[in-house]
Batch of 4 targets.
Target 1
Amino acid sequence: MFEELFERALNCFNKMAPDKSEIGISEPKNVVLTLDASALPDRKQLDKAFRDFVTELDLSPDKQQMLYNQPEEKKWMMVMEQNMRKDKTASTESCEYFVDLLQRYDSTFPETYDIPKAIQQLDGLAISLRTNSHSYVQKFLHLGGLERMISVLDRCRERSDRDHIALPLLNSFRALLNSSDGRSVFLDSPKALQSVAAALDLQNSRCKIVTLEILSALCVLSDQGHTEVIRALSEVSPLLGERRRFQKLVDDLHRPRSSERESERVRTAVMCLINALLKSGVSEHSLEFRLHLRYELLMLGVQDVIDRLRDSHGSALQDHFDLFEMMRQEDEMEMSSSVDSGSSSPVDFENPAGMAEALTAKLNNTVALPHFISLLQHMLMIPGDEKHVHMWRLFDMLIQQLSLQVTMGQMSADMEPSLVKIDIQQALSRLRTQHEYEQLEKELAETNDELELERKRVIELENRVSDLQDDAFSRISDFSSSPSDPCHSPTPTILSTSTSSLPPVKPPTSGPPPPPPSAAQLKLLGGSISSLNVPQKNVPKPSATLRTLNWSVLPANKISSTVWEKIGDEKVYKNLDLEDLATNFVAGKGHQDDNESIYGTLQRKMRSDTLVSVIDAQRSQNCTIMLSKLKLTNREIRTAMLTMDEKGKIPKDMIEQMLKYVPSREEMTLLKEAVEKYKSPAVLAIADRFLLEVGQIPRYEQRLKCLHIMRTYKERVDELVPCINAVIKASNSVSSNKKLKQLLSIILAIGNFLNYGKKSGNASGFAVTSLNAVAGVKSAMRCDRNLMHYIIGVVEEKYPELLRMQREMTGIFDAARCSRPEMEQEMRQVEASLRVLSAELRVQEKILEEEEQELKENIENLENNNNAEEPRLKRRRTVKGDKFIKIVRAFLADSKTQYKEMEALHAEMNSKFFACVRYFAADGPGCSPDDFFGIFAKFLNTFSECRQQLWDEKEEIERVKKQTLARSVFAKRGGRRRQQKNSDQDFEKLISALQSGEIFSEDLCRLRSSFRVSPRKKILVQ
């Protein structure tokens, strides 16, 4: 025991492990080290020096007494050793340095490129607080170091990329809590524990684990720590975005992490804190408070999470699960024993009827029974729907607080937890707002669905309106003297035809067309002629179109001598609320007139039955599906094609689909024949009508291809330019990186040493392809180690600055995905697409020029011949509103300039890439960036993986070491653990005991011996 204390005393003044040869640890334990009596100082001086030495150790009184009982020679040797250690560590950074550093980070937070240096400096702070003397910690606290740490940690939560700074800060808090003064100041600080608890919001798993470990250890350290942790978790709940306290803990327990091992560590830390909250402090002394905390966690679904995670993790986490569930069973049994249920049946704490029965039996023949009945009576008046759920939540909050006040009021003031004061109006307002938000969110989703349906209906109606306009134009044209073109585009409206140059149309002498048939007439269309003489009933007209009752109407000749004769149904309307009836059974399109609705339905049915399709059935079906996804009318598609879709209505992927449905000459012939036969394009099916419309656009196929080129050009350039820039950046970084050159020199030296006396030895250099052969040289000592692990060890020990090399060469990973042949092929294709655009532009310009020349010649002939006939083109090949020439000309002007810049950038890439290749003696005619930089990318990935393996191994060794220390501290503990205000336990060992479950081992063994059933089964307690 003394040797352990002695070693700790020596380690307190040196960050490195003590030299065993200096302190005599290697000597046999029965040897007593002595000094010459003449070399000893005066007794008073020795006592004073040794007293100062013991004070620096910050030990418990019993351990201090063990040191005071040592002989004077031993005391003097420890004092002398202390002075020697102080001399060796004189270069250690002072408290002033770290406080100034924290103040600087508080005022100006480190930028991204300064973060590695900041992490290193803050790691130094954690080491200093953990290993330096007690006076060092006192001085650090006196200078305001704790307040600076709190401020910097709060700033780390402002942005998600500052987690790396928060980790060494949390480790510094953890190191500070190893000191009794540090714990005292930390718990007395109003913001310290709140700031640490708020770090639960950090996404970094290691930060979360350290935070949970600190909170767990403080809970079991003292009653004050337990109370302060609960208060801190309550105060930071709004900062964490929790609807209820402890929601973050349950979420972290449920959420998986990037790896299985990381998930298990976080979940174990969460369960440590949950069990510490339930097993220490106020919870240890109060069953009611313990039940209250557990019910809070159960309401958040912690039991469901535990059930899902059962048998999927290690034994430590399973032990924590067992402890939580069996403590719950024990508490419910104890609670049930205090409740007289009035029967021998057990009380089920999850059954409302069972608990109500037990509560009735408890309050029977008491003055509280009338109030309980009144409470139930008023609760019956409140509905249980979603609209009133906030009222039930308020009842829950009030009962929780009142029960706690009654329970904790019977205890001493120092054990009473901080209770939340509830403002009734504010609580109701917040709960109601939350419910309204959930309702609005649900209504928004429904409205979006309805909006999508309405958009589809609008497109369908626009197509129908277009068909009706075509029909109207055809009818008007039949009365005119000029021939009609059934394939006109765009289709003129009825209003526009009245103002056109067509001769006036005389109205028919027979009067206007008859009105559409009424609803009653339509019902009788299938009956006999005698049925038309049925007298009209006095049925009130509804204010909107209503749903149809699909009954079979009896003819009038069958009504006589039946129940329907003189039935008196018209008198019933006086007793009906017709508005309510209409509201409850209104149809989907309630704003249409009944006659119009039925007439429109008949028109659509007749049209759907007479649609004509002349193209292939499969092609027609696929084209119709494509048009339904496009969600544009034929007129909008035509306008978009003429304007080269300058408004971007047609998506890029739909242009690719439209290229598959370009009408052929045979299809156009069949479509025109169908239009001539039926005198209207309205008889064509959707796909046929679409092909007819787009087939009349001049050079539709070439125009569509040009549009596809223009829409995909930017995307192709945006893919090429970053790839080119990545190769340029990688070439520059690899060629000029001094750290890479130094690493290559290390590999070359090691390789020549390994190949000494061999044919491949005495090398002046090696091919870069050989970098990936380094990991293939296996270690003779361990089968899971290779030469890469050894090189990493050398670099970490002798050349630590080389570890930053990978951050400086991140560009090679992007360059490793770039293939030079593919880039050159893509460049040629982009150039070819620009040539296609230029060629089509010349064709369109030539067509326009020919039409202008032809029109000019016709005008001259008209002037010479004095012919009154209007000049006409033989075959007009352009259309009004065609913007092809204007838009394509402007696009080519910009794109050609952009392409020239990309060509220059590509030439620069080739120049720098081949210079880099030659620099590494890897020159070859077919060398490509993906091959060359892929070698370095693979090497750096292997380097990182091997380094991570070494790091994991060190971490595992440290964990096992801590677990062993924890077992040695808590193996001989007897009885229930007693908390003390000023605990003499080592904080780090306490955390290790919590993580491994050693601190709860005795309680767990006792509970397991009491409960033999599976903890996953539901237990009904007596």
Note: The mean pLDDT is 75.
Target 2
Amino acid sequence: MFPYRAHFEHCRSLVAALLLALLVASDGAAQSLSVVEELRLSEGAAGFAGPLADGDGFGASLAWLGDLNGDGVDDWAVGAPLSDGNGKDRGAIWILFMRADGSVASARSIGDGLGGLGLSLADGDRFGHALASLPDLDGDGRRELCASVVGTSFGGTSWPGGSATSLGASLPAFFEPSGCVWHPGLQRLVVVSDDGRVALVETDGSVQQNFWVGGDLEAVALPDEDLPVVYLGVEHPDSVIELDLTTGTPTGQSWDLTPWMQGSNNRGLEALTVVQGLVYAGLQDTGEIFVFDLQAGSAVQFMGIIPPPGGRDDVSGLHYEASTDILYAIYDPDNLVLELTPSGTALRSYSLPGTFQEGVALLPGCPGPMATFVVAEDNGDLLTYSTYPASCDGSRQLWGRGGVDILFLAADGSVQSESWIASGSGGFGVSLDAGDFFGSALASLGDRNGDGLQELAVGAAHDDDSSSSSFAQRGAVYLLSLTGSGQVSAWSKISATSGGFGGTLNDGDGFGASLTGIGDVDGDGATDLVVGTPYSDWGGGQTGSLWTCLLDGAGAVTWQAELRGADIGAQAGEALGAALAQAARDWTGGLPGVLVGSPTGGDSDAGAIRVLALDGGGSVSESHLIDGANGGLSGPLAAGDGLGFGLAVAGDTDGDGMSELLAGAPGDDGAGNGRGAAWALELKRDSLGVGFCYADGTCPCGNAGTGAAGCANSAGTGGSIFTSGSASITTDDLMLSVSGLPTSKFGLIFMGDATIPALPMADGMRCVGGSLFRFGARLSDGSGVLTEGPGIVGWTWNNLGSAGHILAGDTWSFQCWYRDLKGPCGTGSNASSALAITFVL
């Protein structure tokens, strides 16, 4: 099992209402998309030997590397961010050198001290959390690999403290500690017992004072180190009482928390601490942390809820250390202490010695090399642990800020050099906050604005812009322009308060948890962006949603629209948008498209992938679901596999003319508990009509192509014609697309009322004959796709004589001629495959 859980001044009517008119195409118009070939990669499968270890999460991230080693077959990178390496959860990346049949010829890993990596990793860094492949930056003919290091761990690690020293011998009889806090002004530990007693304890364990207050005291917190008062956390009714430590009596100030904290089965308030003036109260029943502003006169302002990391319950102790900005939380059933940001982002966790842990405090010495960690145990003991360096290391304040390492790879997959981009490093002059998660997602945008520099989009899903709350986690995206050495030359930020973004983000949405470019949607010459908010609660908790952001050349948002997961069938808890990738045009009928991962959705909660096609009128014209019960995937998949946690498109890896989809399932248990797997899937769209004129031995200069395409061209592929929409002359929604063309080259689609034996046509073959008619010249886009339509039927009636009018019952064949000045036969042009379509009313 995997451990994770506005107005637009448009230039063209093409994007008049992109994603606002959320209309899924009718059955009569939609065409099916299904898996026709699949291959599961994991330890011991498809030639991959690993080794992996339990919990590695292989498949959490994926990237296509092109032909790295020059053997004619494209290669892949697969992240295993929970790989232990030389510690715990340091992370690793596997470089997979592939065979043409999709199996692994050889593999090597990159990690802490492995594969030439110069970056020094620490426990919990999660190197490889996100991956992206960049075009060749340094001119060596190989693509570069970007890997993020987010510095967070949900798995237990070995306890960094020394052995325990008991202070419990001097406690009063039957005193069972349920909470503790250090008071620096009094130089005492304040310890509470669930029978209503409070004790002031020296660091040697001797008890200086002992008060009886009454009530079920479960926690204690320090509101002001300069005042001799503490807050006592009372369970049932859940409330906070202010206690004067000089007199041992309550001050009369108290706050009722029961309107918000509702624990069942006598499992109420269990933990308490003060964070930057706010009171954090832990609820035993759910593990949630409730945040309050306790005001004079017993007034309470509820600020929000921090969900438990990993779904844990029974948070039994809390302590906030202001010097390092770290929140410590004890989860009793798991025997864990977690280091969190004030917003609740898990930074690190440790397996805690002992049992019945009910409170946590730090004694003087932090930040320093010899801090003392105190744990109150509800069995009559109070334990201290010395040498707790992680809590006192000044670098701990950087945990959760994140960073991106650009790896310049050699042909053998080892790291030749690297460029580290983080807060104030690598030319990136931004001071990130702890827990921002810079690197939560990565996406290569190419030279999106024509300035000659490659752009990289980086998510910071827990950025708190637009909220005064330190636990907002609304998210942000940074756009970085990179030099040839991988340094940042310029950057811009998109968030609720930056970069022209006009949408509404809510606390916890996680804007930037996933990213993908989607091409130039609005025709302004700049690549546009889709951003995931997988934790959006529209339609239910963590249903997820997507934002399409149209960008200008400077990276500012000119228009945005939200696509809510519930509107396309996503369910609560599905986390739609946890991963994104740009869909191949042959999967979407030539339309712009996006792949969307839902790792906790789908059949049996094993994960799911949706392929969304966006039509020219701004609607979601098609939505195709791939999971254990839909889309032709045989699997098998099991609950918790997390299919869709990582996504990438690999082009035509096996040379059959079809693009491959790489989908991670990091929770796959086939090779061991949570070792993970990656699926290579070939998707095929059921196109209208009958295809023909495929490349074979009759191509003019022996330039036979592969798969359902025409003769090979300078792009190394052949032109393949396919459709979206329907053959209805009434709806007139047919769109013809040709993929596999050289980019930015003119071409045109022509049609005829007969088919003929293949005749040479420049570098290709013509198989369409009879009465011939041509449509207007078009330019192939940056993906090598040329399109015609919709409105094809109407165009023939408005521009052609009666012999060229398309009528119901007619069969017309379509083919594309296109320029290819560097083609293999030297004629300067080529032809695609052909398609015969019979039209209906």
Note: The first helix runs from residue 389 to 392.
Target 3
Amino acid sequence: MSRLRRSIASLLHGKKPADTSMSGALPPVPELPTSITLNEDYEFVDEQALQQAFVESLHERNRTLEWERDAEKLARQMVEESLRAKMAEVDGLLLKVQAGPAEENRERIRRLELSIHDIGDKKRVERDVEERVLQVGELEARLNEYQIGSSAKAAAEEHMARVVKLQKEKSQVEKRVKVLQADEVHFGAEWEERARELKKVRLQNRELRGLVAALNQEVKNAEAQMREIKASRVLDASLTPRIMVVSKLLREHTREGVHGSDDAFLQSCSPRLLTNQNLDIQLNTNQAKVLMEDLAVGELIIIACDVCLLPRLASKPGVARPRLRVDEFIGRSRHTSCCSKSVCRQCFLQSLDKALEVDWWVNLGVTDWLRCPVSSCEASLNIGHNAGLETLLHQLGGEDTARHLEMYERAEAFRAALSRHLPDFSNEALLAAACLQNHLVTIGRMHNFFDPMFTNRIPDETGRVPSFNPGKIRAVSVDQDGDNSIDVPLFISFLRRQEPPKSCIVCTENLFDIHTGSAEEWLELCEGLHGTWMWGILLFPIKLELECRHTIDFCTACLRSHLKAQLEQHGRGASGRLSCPSADCGRKLSYQEIQLYGERDTFTQYDKYLQLDALNHLPNFRWCLRPGCSSGQLYDDDDRPMDPHMYCDECRFEMCFVHSVPWHAGQTCAQYDSVRAHGDPEFQQTQDWIKNNTKPCPGCKENIQKGEYCFHMTCTRCRYEFCWECLADWKLIAPENTTYNLEAHKRGCPFRTNEVTPTQISGTNLQEALRRRRRNGG
């Protein structure tokens, strides 16, 4: 643009360029730009006025040129007449040369030749004038195009302004529509929720009315029963807490014979048959009368339990053979003598239940892991096997001894499996595992560890019932605060599998996966316990749904094999090229997805390629030159001069850092340069052959020789794919899952303007390949 301005200014001021090579030559005509873009910034104050002035100047210049051309034409005619006269004079002089002095004639001939040369110069000037006239005509035509372009520019700018305004209005309308749609959905959901709540309130109101009526009836029945009890004088002046409890129970429960007459105690209501299990059984009026008449409580005392803090009945100390078999506290034994606290049987049993269900996760190094129920004590109960627990259960008088013993056996199997796992899990990891698997049980994605369905009661070929086997343990990663995570054990056998099975479209296997719903639903179900575990335990890689937006119909094992095959195919050029195997997708997988679903070796190699790809652009990075080795590394020796003799860390191959060749043993770099420059007569021939028969790989810059195959090249060192003729990136020429892109070839490449693709012909060079194709009738 600056050239255009300078040319216009020189024309307006009548200036001529200083470098005119010929006297009288016209100044060069400035060229107008071939195209004017709408976005170009002009600095003219009044563009239209300047254009008009420019046109008038061109017309004036044109008239001047025409006048000069006429003058030159007249001068040319005069020169031609003079030339004819001179020629005649030359002819006369030639005749005189023979008779006159030769020197004088030669001088006159020289002057005539100069005159002829001047005439030739004038003719050249005339031709220049004609060329300038033609250039002025072209300049006027371009100026007209420029004026038309300026008008089109103004119209286009106005149109673009309207388009931008309409687009803004459209965007605002679309945003408003989205807001209204969101409000509609929100208010619709809120209205439905309110309707459900109203319906629920109505049902609760109806239930409350029925409950009030029932309570009124119960109150009437209780009042009648109280009157009957008072009349029978069951409650006399000698009240005890137990009698008060019984009295309250009688007031709150009015139905008679709840437990039936089968119970021996209820049949006789004899104090001799009263046990801890009968203390809170419901009695009717007649049964209460019988028990009150024969009940002697002199052998009992009331003690508060140190765990639940409730008053409990206990035998008086020193009573050798008590008549009442009522004692809610366990006696002293090797399992219960850890502290002086009083713990009722009910609290002891509840503590055992909790320990058998939860406490087995931690303290794997000890055998007696069952602890005292008192929080301030927590000493061991000295139970290291089934016999000790069975003894304690008999002391407690529990009714579920078999269930507790089976739970203990299964807990011991879980602990043994965790202890055998390497590496060991910390107590923190074990507690996190307990939290995770309890959550999975709660949301219905895992079976309870003590579910009877896992109890095998069928004998094997030896006639014995096999011991419980907890199955395989997998170490999975659970996120913690910040960016930290922790590896925890997961018992895979207890995961709930969905039915019917899901079929993989690749391997066609039917797999029973965990029921997760969509990827978004699975994320919501695992809220608070996210981590790679939630995707790693699944048989189908549904995490890809979050980005691919299509149904995942291939299993994780097939995806793993696909990633491995792609890595082997692309080699060092695999960075950012591993993709989803779905035929209609082809999305490039992220670093985290490859880490999650790739095999350990696959991800390690991919991560190495990423690092090498990043280092490849550094000046002190070198690839290993040994064939078959794909390693590369940085060579740096701090601030000291670096030794050019370097070794590959992978295969110990020796190379020269300066020349990027195998190490020139016995020669310094200077000596090697000298031999190449002077002492090796074949060096230049070698360099010429390399130049004519090889090309540098666009990926690693290594020289590559073309073989007999097609023109789709893959570098054996870095696995970069490209077109041999123009070195264009093959992933742009033939993107995955898309059609062949002819325009991706570089300008000048024969494949850019030819229907023949690089994979359809083969040969060491293009000429040979085309001849071979013609011979084959292609």
Note: The longest helix spans residues 102-232.
Target 4
Amino acid sequence: MKYTLWMLICLALVYPVPASKDSLCDIQGKFTFNALYKPGDIVLGGIFIAHLRAIPPDMSFRSKPEQWKCEGNASQNDYHIVLIFQNSFDLSVFQRMQAMIFAIEEINKDEALLPNLTLGYRILDNCLNLQMSLRAALKHIGGLEDSASDYSCQGLPPVVAIIGDPVSSHSVAISRVLGLFGIPLVSYSASCSCLSNKQEYPSFFRTIPSDIFQVKVMVEIIKHFGWTWVGAVGSDDDYGRYALLSFNEEVNKFGCIAFSRTFTANEREKMLQIIHTLKQSTAKVIVLFMLKSEATLFLNEIVSQNITGKQWIGSDSLSGFPGFAKNENFKFFGGTIGINAKRGLIPGFENHLLQIQPSMDGNNNLLAQFWETMFGCTFTENNTTYLSSKVCTGKEDILNTKTAYSDVSELRTTYNAYKAVYTLAYALHNLIFCEMNSSILCILQQLLHYLKTVSFVTKSGDRVAFDKNGDVLPMYDILNWQRADDGSVITKVVGVFDGSSTIGNELALNEDMMFWNFNHGKVPESVCSRSCPPGTRKATRKGEPICCFDCLPCADGEISNSIQCLTCSSEFWSNYGRNECVPRETEFLSFEEAMGITLTTTALLGAFISVAVFAIFLFFRNTPVVKANNSELSFLLLLSLTLCFLCSLCFIGKPTDVTCMLRHVMFGISFVLCISCILVKTIVVIMAFKATLPGNNIMKWFGVSKQRSTVLLFTLLQSLICLIWLITAPPAPSKNTKYQNLKMILECDVGSVVGFACLLGYIGFLACLCFLLAFLARNLPDTFNEAKFITFSMLIFCAVWITFIPAYISSPGKYTVAVEVFAILASSFGLLVAIFAPKCYIILFKPEKNAKKALLGRSAK
């Protein structure tokens, strides 16, 4: 009891007892409201939307303006509101009012919560009008009169807090006013994310999650089904604008917005333009963030224009009204996905609803209006705009009715209103039991502090607590509009969103329970452009969102991940479908293939012939033909030719580090040895001619030992070049992918181009020098025409390697190596045949010419 007295003393300190009548604030007029009222020690205010339209007064400026009136009936020809039910009194909202009253009555009966204190209520109807909402708020905080009280006015607080307003834009305006006085506004339905700004709305709290979370749920659903091309339509108010702003921002992170538009109930032309855009759009998924009034107009127009094949996603203000899809409208809106606050249970609430009785009390005139709407009658004593020839008796049986009022199977917004009362009750309870010796003054502002820290569990087991922004933990049910067995349309829970779960696991959907109204009962597809097939990439269309694109094929050697083309690594190539990199087929001049066998056979044949000639010369080594012009050089030349033939075998087969180095070294040294021998033989021919001149003893300066030394010197220089080359940058196996796509040529990279050029250049220099000397000595007298044969052989050699260059460059793949082997064999055969064939012919077939007598006779001639 002492805590109760302490609370009353605290309130009296803020609102002193009434002074004389002369000290009251002056008022400019009185405003009447449809209301429900019950006095108490502490009164809680409420603002609800019982009627869905307010009629403004006539502003003729010839008489005092009348008050705004709430319309009882909605004309079917009036565009502004074409309701799905004829009377504008909303039975579901009256159920929410009763939830507030029921919660207060429960608290008053609870001896542990606010003991010895009685809560009262004053519930006002704002008729879905901002001006009426502001006036209702001012009436709540202003007491018996209708002007805003300030701290100079006297009296106890009429209400300590207000529950409502359900409309976000109304709550924004009211919160700015109430925030000046520190009076809490606890909304059960205003979900605009803008209201989370505590700097602008310090006294605003709500038991419905912020639209930030609702947007997150919608986005998670859209991502879950792979929808990347969606349209969005909203109310042109704080609720719709802020929701669409957040929604567009989140969707653009992974998809695209086909269109995003807002309108109000008074903007028919704008609404028709939006619907025209919707019809033209290829987006199959349409998200709606709009109030019931705009939704009614919008969806009715969808039906009028026969727009089907759209998957609708409705926000919490719309998803709880599956009646939009009843009867023939099911083909338009069946399967709609809705997001709404978690369904709650209120034990004993249904009995409370069925015990309501009408009242003619002016402070509770909403009871009479409810009764008239419920039973389609009129109280003759009640001043109402609902006209009916049937007279209400007050004895009608409410137990036999089945309306939105008595339906407690889907308590969502109603449950939020119920929780809002308890949040205030627990905050007041904690305030009463605050430390009496505390240095903090016990003023009404402290109620905000206790609201921020309130935490309790409802009778149905749900925890209620506010975060730093005055928002509750997001808990949503995912709804699906389906047809029940009796033909009615119901909202079926097909999933949940639990904000307390770990990131990525908040959404849980049961797709087997979901109904899809088109696409043969399968999940609809909503994309601007289908995903690119394998082997193609996205090419964004100019001036269109990134979700709208064309699919262009990837180039050869590239594969796609359906977004972009990726180049395969050097050892791989794209397959035919360009969706996988496959290993390239390796290719090299093999010993097993026909060309390799042919070249190998030819090389071995050349080597065999060289050995055979060597054997012939060895057998006939004492004959004039062999002994002429230094037989030792002839044997060395045949040995080098044998090496030339055999070195070509190093070019055949799979390249390795050893074969790559060996092929170029053997090629360079063997050919230099060969040409050096020919060059020395040419020099010997020239000097032999010079030695025949009288008094010329030149041959003693170029004897056999000098000839050997010259050959050795030329060969050592080439060996030195090869050694430096191998040390600095040796040849190595490489994989050539330039010439063929699906094949990889295994070849030997020369390593150092300079080294390779020096090797070839040195061979070329010796060959040119040898050819030049042989050409100059071609007409010199010689017993066996040695100079002419050397000239001819070097001509063949040079011709082969000159023609080799363009053939080598133009030959692709392994044929490059084949051309090189062919040049080696051709030049080797040219030297072998041109130099040794005439001698072998004389030795084998003209032995008479190989006699000393014949040689002397030829010399005499």
Note: DSSP finds 23 helices and 27 strands in the chain.
